Structure formats: C-alpha cells, structure tokens
Amino acid sequence: MSTTDTSGDEQRDYEPRAQMVAQYLREQIFEGLIKPGTPVRQEAVAKDLGVSRIPVREALALLEREGLVTIRPHSGAKVAVLDFDECMELYKIRERVEPLALSESIGLLTEEELARACAFADQAESVAGNYVAWIEADRRFHVSCIARDHLPHLTRLVEGFWNTTQQYRRILVKQFEPEDFTLFQCDHRLIVEALRSQNRRGAEDIMRLHIERARLRIAALREDFDR
C-alpha cells in the first residue's frame, strides 16, 4: 500500500502564510503599534491571524534577518530596540562597503540585472509617500545593484548591513516630506546611470553621499531612539 508524501505541499502552503504574517508584523512595527522591546508571542499572533504557529515562527525568523526582531533561546522574540550608537556605527560601515560593492559590480551586471535595478527604482517612485512600501522598494533597489553571482562575500555583507539597519530607516523615512522622496530617488537614477556608463568613481561617490545623507539625517533624530 502506497502513501502520498504531502510534506512538500504543506511547505508550499506555509511559505505564503509566513510572508503574510511577516508583512502584518512589519507594518505593526513600522507604524509603532508594537513598541521596541515588546515581546511578540507566537500563540497570540497565530490566533489573531487564524494560522498555525509554524508560519508565525518562520515569519519571526525572516524579521530577525531584517533586524526588526531579536530572538533569544528560552525568552522568545521581541521587537528590536533602537540603539543610536549601533545605528551610527552600522551606517558608517555601509558608507565604505556599499560604494565598494557597487564599483566592483560595474561591468559584471547583465542587461537584465540593470533593467531589474531600474524597475525597482521605478517601483520606489510609484510608492513615494507610502513609507512602509518605499522602505522595502528602496532595499530591493540597493541590493539589486550588486552583482551577487560574482561577488558573494560583498553581497552577504551588504545584505547583512541592510537587514540590521532596516529598523533604523523607519525613523528617517517617517519624517520624509515629498521633496525628500524626490531627492533620494534622484540618487537612485544617478546610481543606475553610473552603472550603465560604467563610471566607477561616480558610482562610488554617489552611493557614499547617498548613505551619508541618510546617516546625518538620522543623527538629527536621536530623540526618537530608545533610552
């Protein structure tokens, strides 16, 4: 007598549920409805959303990689606390690492990959004003500018620093006026142009100034960090 293995089907079912749970929690955190340091109880989230604990657990693991929650053995998940000194250190590292990654990607990105980066820049422009959607589109743009197949170590560094600074970017973007979205998106266009024209120095300079501007703007919002 044969049996049917449904484990693959179950996994496919859990994945979209986990994404749905992650988006729900992400929005709650970005909107400040779940405060930094607040425990995130798997049972309560599962009950609220009508799902099992498995997609909630997977969603929390995803949000931990994004830097939005911290998970500790025996104590569960908590919304990440905003630490000013950590934020400044991470942004200064990004100012050095991402220009290098961008410069090294010049000549390695395919036309398809350049088109994808441009599409993410378009997406960010289309959601300007919706800071939750813009934060995600902005992240996708930056990561798409790295030739990940050729630069695996730099890619991991860039993605890691983006994940760990994700929680800090909401402090900045929540303060944005329409002209701020326009300014940052102009940088995106200049970055794409530098990639297409293979202008290494230009690409590095634009990216460094782009990240530095964000750091200085966040530094002026220190009162919004946790004490």
Superfamily at the CATH H level of the largest domain? GntR ligand-binding domain-like
Listing every helix as H and every strand as E from the N terminus to the C terminus, the arrangement reads: HEHHEEHHHHHH
Q: At CATH's second level, what is the architecture of the largest domain?
A: Up-down Bundle
Strand order of the largest sheet: 1-3-2
Going by helix content, strand content and strand pairing, the class is mainly alpha
Q: How many whole angstroms does the radius of gyration measure?
A: 19 Å
CATH topology of the largest domain: Four Helix Bundle (Hemerythrin (Met), subunit A)
Average pLDDT? 89
Largest sheet: 3 strands, antiparallel
What fraction, in percent, of the residue positions are helical?
Answer: over 70%
Number of helices: 9
Give the end-to-end Cα distance, rounded to a whole number of Å: 63 Å
Protein name: GntR family transcriptional regulator
InterPro entries: GntR_C, TF_FadR/GntR_C, Tscrpt_reg_HTH_GntR, WH-like_DNA-bd_sf, WH_DNA-bd_sf
Pfam families: FCD, GntR
Organism: Actinoallomurus acaciae
Question: Can you walk through the features of this model?
Answer:
The chain is mainly α. It folds into two domains: 7-79, Winged helix-like DNA-binding domain superfamily/Winged helix DNA-binding domain (Arc Repressor Mutant, subunit A); 84-224, GntR ligand-binding domain-like (Four Helix Bundle (Hemerythrin (Met), subunit A)), CATH 1.20.120. The chain contains nine helices and three strands, in the order αβααββαααααα. It has helices at residues 7-30, 42-49, 53-65, 84-105, 111-126, 131-144, 152-173, 178-197, 200-219, and strands at residues 39-40, 69-72, 76-79. The model is unreliable at 1-11 (pLDDT under 50).
